[in-house]
Design a protein that fits this description.
This protein is an alpha+beta fold. It contains 11 helices and 27 strands. 18% of the residues lie in helices and 27% in strands. Strands 4, 5, 6, 7, 8, 9, 10, 11, 12, 14 and 15 form an 11-stranded mixed β-sheet that branches. Strands 16, 17, 19, 20, 23, 24, 26 and 27 form an 8-stranded antiparallel β-sheet that branches. A 4-stranded antiparallel β-sheet has the order 18-25-21-22, with no helix packed on it. It starts with a helix and ends with a strand.
Length: 593
Amino acid sequence: MPGNRRRTLLVSALVVLGLVAALGIALLVVPRPAVATADSALGSYAPEKQFTERITESFLLPMRDGTRLAVKLDRPAVDGRAAPGPFPVLWQHSLSTERKPEDGAGPKTGGIQTIPTLTDHGYVVAQVARRGNGQSFGVRRGYNDRLEANDAYEVTEWLAAQPWSDGNVGVYGCSNTGDAAMHTLTVRPPHLKAVLAGCFSWDKYDAWRVGGISAQWGFGPSRTVEQDLANTPVDGDEDKTLLREAAVEHQRATPLADMWRGMPYRDSWTSATQSRFWSEGSVGSYADQVRAADVPVYVIGGWHDELRGQGIATLLNVPGSRLLVGPWKHCENAGFGLVEEAHRFFDQHLKGIDTGIDAEPPIHYATPRSDAADATGLEWTAAQSWPPAGTAPQPTTLGGDGVLGSAAPGARGFTVDTAAECPTDPGSGSTIQPCHIPGSGTSWTGPVLDAATELTGTPVADLTVRTDRRDGDVFAYLEEVAPDGRTTVITEGRQRISLRAEHPAPYTLPEGVPWHRAYAADAAPVTPGAAVRLRFAMLPTSYEVPAGHRIRVTVTGHDPRATGPLPDADGARIEVLSGPDTASSVTLPHHTG
């Protein structure tokens, strides 16, 4: 009987299949994802290599307007010849096709610039110099502008169409190439399947002019012909004839330093690009397109990077995105296998291998236990949302007696010294750090902590200030004070007084975080001596202050990292007021887990 039943079921199935075929109905077979053949966990993923060789070629690729972009292609190889594939493709839209392997690498494993080693695992990896940069021809118009985004669309689709490509393309980058990766997403190339981006800007104005004050960033690429000629030319141009032609063409680029200086407001228009470039260059301006693309995004950041809040804004505004934040400076990854994490992310979304990453919480962050903590021994916390569950914002008053948490009325003032410098080396460029300058500004210090206190989230300063000038810049620092008096800046914020007006944010921010539109029409200088309210966010943080230490808030009128201070800032008198009608406080994001 069982045998007859099996035969009956088989005949029935064949009859159904015959009917389906006769009617021309296509059967949709949904493949099950392949299961990872290696252990897969956060920052740890090392499947067996498929290839031990790779070949590299470089060439010029014409765009829609005839501009030729330089492409460097790394492909898996066998016995000195390129493997036919087809393979998924990863690419980076950079300032040059040359990327040093050690760039961004930490002591544990390679950083984001070692992604080309994924040719060992069956990926083609491309570096493409953006127009007007490196070995590419063209004239750079702006910085992460629409021309570059449209180039990225063409490059993505070209990579997908090559015979060695299986049509699945991912883009990656950090810093300016992280911006470029996200701008690729804004134009929605059909074959783009995943984006991994670190330390980029969601809102370029809020990244480059926090609180309306120019940040410490450089002004972007500005290179001489001789500097461009130091690049390695594409294959076949060993005498650098084409490289020189491109370098000469680059000299017609927009002077970025002048462009940034000429845009003090979010709605500033610049003749350099014939646009309101803060908007044009912001990924957030194209949030609807990003969401419609429905492409997985993995955001990488660092608690010591100026752009960490931009990554959190991206997480909150791009459904399905992931966030990883460690105790790192700009584009660093000490103590974490970033290339391994990128590998399992791309294997999941480009190869269809179930690495388990999609079953994990979307957020992982490491909380330093002190500023001197060994970064190689990171402890990671998983979260489903930001700020994480267990975060309780606590408004903490700034008393007139200099005590954090005191309600004593009074005024604490200081004279702005624009010549003040950090007592220790703060670093330079994109990794420069804030510092405590003794005697600069005024401070409020809390009691000695009985127990370790974790601060995870976005502190918010709410200050009542007055100054003897029409305008001024105010900087607030959240600090840890050790028993020996050593001071560590945990995080910081800044706000120009004339741009203090608050408006509803055009995108989602953490609850309670204020947003300043900073249009030209919003600029409101003050009457000297009049009290005004400033409410502004510090950069998000996760930090544990040990027992026996103190929490301190310091307010100053100058930060050595800022560029272009107000012309009459030096010698200005600024006071922070406390009292029933002139309250000042800082909301601290206490986290209890």
